[in-house]
């Protein structure tokens, strides 16, 4: 969700040296990074990830190459994943939190320092992904993929003369004609963020009045929403159950390509703006097999593997070394100005709002009722 241009990213981030231990804000020392060598494994790999976010062939290839078993469990929101990791003893070795959630996990001491010496391929990360607000030195996380959140439309139902605006969902005078054929994400920050952007506010507001307006807007839309669904928003659209879907760029574009007529569907970030996000790899503080996790991070940052990842899920890569291996269709989609009619400046990244964060969760629960 960092506001860098939606273009091929060419610069390279040079890996920095990681201190073995750092001082926490309260003066206590944090735990040292795991003592791992490049390519070392210390057990099987249990990955906790978003659905359909990694090619099963990549999972099989890593497991075969390193002589381990690799399992993948999935979640549909950061808020669903976070309490499981924070509670401890999750059994997961690697997670894929979004930008703002990384900051929350760092603050809660729920993820561990990375041993960058064990991840030499971190040098492949583009310089556009350095000095990120949620983890400025990259001590706890490594960018995995990035993209946008917007709206997908079935033009066979809606036609082509529709507003490139959040009004397509939130303005009853337009949206009521598609009642029961609209979906919104099952995600507090994304869905309330969409409403906030429509209202002209920041999706990171800490103003209770603005959040209340957004809550009421989502609650009013609830009557025309077929589902609050993150995992299947793209499939609901292309199977005809919905005609307008709130969702993630790569999910939508990949699903379009699986249909007989991809040109029938349009994805865009509404002109009022929307979310640009970065998902990241991080290792839970009590990961059973942290060295295997480090090895996987290094492996997926290889140029060939990084390209294969994006060519599977059709999200943009932060891996500069992978760019030459990306399919032209993906590059064309990412660079198409029609995808972001409000321009790159209309995008915002979701940030941790600290103590106000619980208000988003509570407001969403009340809105979807």
Helix/strand layout:
Blueprint: E1 45-50, H1 56-66, E2 70-75, H2 78-86, E3 94-95, H3 99-107, E4 142-154, H4 155-158, H5 167-170, H6 172-175, E5 182-184, H7 188-198, H8 208-221, E6 225-228, H9 233-238, E7 244-248, H10 249-257, E8 265-268, E9 274-281, H11 290-300, H12 303-313, H13 328-335, E10 347-348, H14 357-368
Parallel strand pairs: 1-2, 1-3, 5-6, 5-7, 9-10
Antiparallel strand pairs: 4-7, 4-8, 4-9
Share in β-strands: 5-15%
* Whole-number mean pLDDT: 91
Give a quick account of the main beta sheet: strands, pairing sense, barrel closure: 7 strands, mixed
Which regions are unreliable across 5 or more consecutive residues at pLDDT < 50?
Answer: 1-29
Question: Could you state the order of secondary-structure elements as H and E?
Answer: EHEHEHEHHHEHHEHEHEEHHHEH
Q: How many helical stretches? A: 14
* Number of strand elements: 10
Shape assignment: globular
* CA distance, first residue to last residue: 28 Å
Helix content: 25-40%
What Rg, in angstroms, do the CA atoms define? 20 Å
Assign the structural class, choosing from mainly alpha, mainly beta, alpha/beta, alpha+beta, or little secondary structure: alpha/beta
Which properties best describe this structure?
7-stranded mixed beta sheet; disordered N terminus; 3-stranded parallel beta sheet; alpha/beta; 14 helices
């Amino acid at each position: 969700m960092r506001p860098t241009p939606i273009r091929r990213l060419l610069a390279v981030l040079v890996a920095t040296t990681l201190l073995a231990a750092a001082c926490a804000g309260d003066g206590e020392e944090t735990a040292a990074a795991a003592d791992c060598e490049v390519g070392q494994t210390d057990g099987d790999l249990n990955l906790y990830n978003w659905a359909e976010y990694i090619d099963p062939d990549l999972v099989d290839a890593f497991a075969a190459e390193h002589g381990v078993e690799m399992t993948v469990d999935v979640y549909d929101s950061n808020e669903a994943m976070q309490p499981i990791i924070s509670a401890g003893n999750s059994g997961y070795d690697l997670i894929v939190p979004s930008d703002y959630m990384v900051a929350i996990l760092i603050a809660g001491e729920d993820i561990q320092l990375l041993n960058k010496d064990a991840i030499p391929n971190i040098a492949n990360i583009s310089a556009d992904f350095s000095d990120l607000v949620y983890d400025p030195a990259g001590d706890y996380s490594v960018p995995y993929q990035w993209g946008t959140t917007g709206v997908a439309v079935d033009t066979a139902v809606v036609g082509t003369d529709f507003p490139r605006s959040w009004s397509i969902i939130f303005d009853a005078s337009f949206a009521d004609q598609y009642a029961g054929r609209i979906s919104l994400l099952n995600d507090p920050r994304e869905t309330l963020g969409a409403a906030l952007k429509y209202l002209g506010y920041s999706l990171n507001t800490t103003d209770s009045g603005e959040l209340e307006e957004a809550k009421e807007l989502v609650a009013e839309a609830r009557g025309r929403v077929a589902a609050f669904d993150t995992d299947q928003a793209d499939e609901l659209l292309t199977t005809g159950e919905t005609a307008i879907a709130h969702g993630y760029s790569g999910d939508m574009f990949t699903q379009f390509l699986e249909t007989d007529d991809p040109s029938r569907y349009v994805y865009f970030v509404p002109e009022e703006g929307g979310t640009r996000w970065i998902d990241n790899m991080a290792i839970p503080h009590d990961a059973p097999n942290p060295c295997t996790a480090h090895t996987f991070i290094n492996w997926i940052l290889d140029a060939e593997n990084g390209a294969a990842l994006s060519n599977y899920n059709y999200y943009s890569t932060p891996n500069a070394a992978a760019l030459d291996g990306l399919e032209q269709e993906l590059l064309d989609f990412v660079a198409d100005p029609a995808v972001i009619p409000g321009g790159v400046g209309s995008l915002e990244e979701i940030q941790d709002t600290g103590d106000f964060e619980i208000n988003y969760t509570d407001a969403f629960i009340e809105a979807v009722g």
